[in-house]
Design brief:
The complex is a heterotrimer of chains A (380), B (216) and C (251). Chain A is 34% helix and 23% strand. Chain A starts with a strand and ends in a 6-residue tail after the last helix. In chain B, helix 6 packs across helix 7. Classes of the chains: A alpha/beta (380), B mainly alpha (216), C mainly alpha (251).
Chain lengths: 380, 216, 251
Amino acid sequence: MIEFEAVTKQYPDGTIAVNELDLAIDAGRITVFVGPSGCGKTTSLRMINRMIDVTSGHIRIDGTDIMTSDPPVLRRGIGYVIQQAGLFPHRTVLDNVATVPVLTGMSRRAARTRAAELLETVGLPAGMAKRYPAQLSGGQQQRVGVARALAADPPVLLMDEPFSAVDPIVREGLQEELLRLQADLAKTIVFVTHDIDEAIKLGDKVAVLRTGGILAQYDEPAALLGRPVDDFVASFVGRDRGYRALGFLPAERLRLGELPLVELGGTVANARAALVDGWAVAVDEARRPLGWLSETRLATVDGSASLTDDLLVRGGSLYTHDAKAGITAGSLRSALDSALSSPAALGIAVNADGGVLGSVDASDVLAALAAARSQGEVPT
Amino acid sequence: MTGTMTWLNAHWGLVLSLSWQHWYLALIPVLIGLVVSIPLGWLATRSKVLRNTFFYLFGFLYSIPSLALFIVIPVILGTGILDPLNLIIPLTIYTIALMVRSVVDALEAVPWHVRAAATAMGFRPLHRFFAVDLPMSVPVLIAGLRVAAVSSISLVSVGALIGLSGLGDLFTEGEQHQFIGEIVIGVVGSLVLALVTDLVLVLIGRVTTPWTRVRT
Amino acid sequence: MSLWAQLWHWLTTSANWQGGTGIPTRLAEHLEYTGLTMLIAMVIAVPLGIAVGHTGRGGVIVVGVANGLRALPTLGLLTIVVLAAGIGLLPPILALVVLAIPPLLAGTYAGIRAVDPAVVDAAKGVGMRGWQVMLRVEVPNALPLIFGGIRSAALQVVATATISAYVGLGGLGRFVIDGIAEQDYTQALAGALLVAALAIVIDLVLVLVQRLVVSPGLNEVSTRSARRGTRRTRNLSAPGAEVAHTGGSSS
């Protein structure tokens, strides 16, 4: 557990980066510091491992004031991941990860063995070990950075905008990876980001800081969305708060409707016969959706023609109704999104293997929401 | 010290004429080198093969010690013993070896979107080169020129060993007459030339790049 | 006989390969001067460059002094030193050292400063002490540019050592200076070619050493070029690279 007690950081020229910060970070949880530029989130993080020293106030880790520790020794017990990864270009990936164990006295051989295990844990192929950082992509470098931070098995992990420099698809992968790791390792993670969506996705608790280093609100994400404490937090959290809050509501009890399914290759006339309310879904042999079939589109073609790819209307996101190892089930938010984005005004619900389960109607989602509210599942 | 000042007063004209000659012999190669380097550098940005060839070729040439080059070049070109070309050609080669790299770096540092915008506006390639690429290359080019110029000024004095006059004469004469003051004057003169040339180049750089001095 | 034929004759005359004035002796002398100078200059310049680069203080002075020393005319410095301090090995070596320091200092300082600040931050963050960061992270990463400085300095010294023959030193420059004095241009040309060959060989040897010593992870510095999306790699471990990175020598 990490405690901030009236922590202030003031620079010689007068700027106050962190202003009387009081907060307690729970052990074994992910706590996110989020806020606009100049809110002191990175400064606060860097004060935990004494990369920056406090001007006044105390920071305690498990009751011990950090000022009583020798900084390098303190840092060897804390994992530190930064935005640019900061990998040592002159060392191989394996040696990069083995850095802290070697620093704390482990034999190089033992350290390298541990490093190899960690590379696997963060999802990197074993062949990467002998490569140099310059040969890796941004996402791979970040994974190595995380592995390096975990190498000495520190109880605390500090992460300073670690995923901001990679593209959105890679970022999502890394976020999922972190959540998966955390489920296994239960470290005390302090994570800094400027992206409120990332904060809400990853944080067990989120601290919103305002410019000038002042704490605005420190709460669970659902509470942040549902009960912002003032206008600043409300606007920082964003205009789609209500919609985003749906992301926290599971949708297992959502009612799914029937969807007419047609396989490609048959005739257009057969397809037309299968349409319900002018729409049907084209699927492959494994019942995976390929696109929509619309009455208006099919009307332009002769009935005896073969049903081909180019006759499909594409559009609409998919909503995953069932979970499986590695695939999380969708929330009410993704269910609603699939209904709203579909050209047929009906969302497609699929199981964890991608096969069609049924349809999602927007009004069913809102009904599920009302049910959740009445059962007290929505924070108010 | 007084001996030196007396000598200086008596030989002021000589020192000035030697300085002028020295400066002239040093800067002509730099100017020629610059002009030759620009097209060569431009070519190098277009072709990877050329780029690598130049890299190795000029690296190789730059490694050769000056005195050696001063002797070998006249033999290859068949120029007379006291021909100033014996100095100018090697120094030009050194300048080119240095500046081609600068030109390549400078041109590659021009942001692609600036070039793209210029082309989209209707600039023909050659016009765009002179209106956009070259002006934006000035800071890097000036940095390279400063090194080339100072280097050149320092090397001209070695020319005294092959009979070419410049401030280097003061070194050889001073050594022969065991008169250290004369040498000191030569060194100071050379340093002054280097400093003045450096300042002039910095000034030219400032004047031609007003956009780098604006506070945003 | 043409000059080239005379040259060939000179190079193949066995008398020129023996004794106190023969090619091997002169070569050995030249290498001795170069080695001694580089050793002294490196002991002075490299630690200074590392220290100033690591702490960041005094950088302006260091760079200024290095640039200033580059402008010193070699012949002038040599003759002053010999007249002031007399004949012998030490005075010219002193001059050679003074001229070798600028590229070494500039290269070392530039190398340390060029290390990515994020890497230095990460090194501190994992718990390395100041000197550990300096020796285990900054220096290895600065090696390409440091080697650039070493190669530049070595060429500078080989060249200046050649000129030192004018003030009485031995070495391959002896052939050049004596050749000019005696109007024996064959000898001068031979000396010039030998010196040029020596310089090239030394540079190649240093390139080899660089390849061996510098981490393979640093050999290709990848730069996202101005052109959209393309990554251009610049090989820092090829002959001639020092021209680019330390601005070359002046001899």
